[in-house]
Amino acid sequence: MDLPAGEHYATKEIQELCDQVKSKVEEITSRNLVEFKAFIYREFKSSHFATYQVKVCVGETEYFHVLFHRTVSEKEEVKTTVEKVEQHHTKDDIIVPVNSQ
């Protein structure tokens, strides 16, 4: 499957980041998610800041688009913040880049 420009298949590292935000996504959506598998992602990085948009499989045919940020302080403390969760997407839905919303 050819991916749209800027999208990449999820890596182990992206899955690990998604594992870290899963509980916040469950809180936002009021759902207990048994499956939470990163599929496709977009990433925007600067020196102390990264924004991730990840398409996450949460069921057989249901996907979430999760937008979160990771910041690194001058003391090297990492903070991850979930900004937005879009529910009810499909495997074929394109992740709309955050800079075009």
TrEMBL record:
Gene3D superfamilies named among the record's database cross-references: 3.10.450.10
Highest taxon of source: Eukaryota
Protein name per its UniProtKB record: Cystatin domain-containing protein
Taxonomic source organism: Characodon lateralis
